[in-house]
């Protein structure tokens, strides 16, 4: 299975966060959502999760 990467630098942000999360897709989606809520003060909504899912990329070897 291809690991996925969520790179906070690729999301619109005023804080210029540099966090990168890698793992299986559902793990990354969960962790990235928790990060967006706790650090960036977003509301956990289906729209947020879909936006994050759209930003996920395959991990480069």
TrEMBL record:
InterPro entries to which the protein is assigned, alphabetical: DUF1059
Pfam family, one: DUF1059
Protein name (record): DUF1059 domain-containing protein
């Amino acid at each position: 299975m291809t690991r996925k990467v969520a790179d906070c630098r690729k999301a619109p942000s005023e804080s210029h966060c540099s966090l990168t999360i890698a793992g299986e897709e559902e793990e990354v989606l969960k962790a990235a959502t928790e990060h967006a809520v706790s650090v960036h003060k977003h509301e956990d909504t289906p729209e947020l999760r879909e936006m994050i899912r759209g930003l996920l990329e395959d991990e480069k070897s």
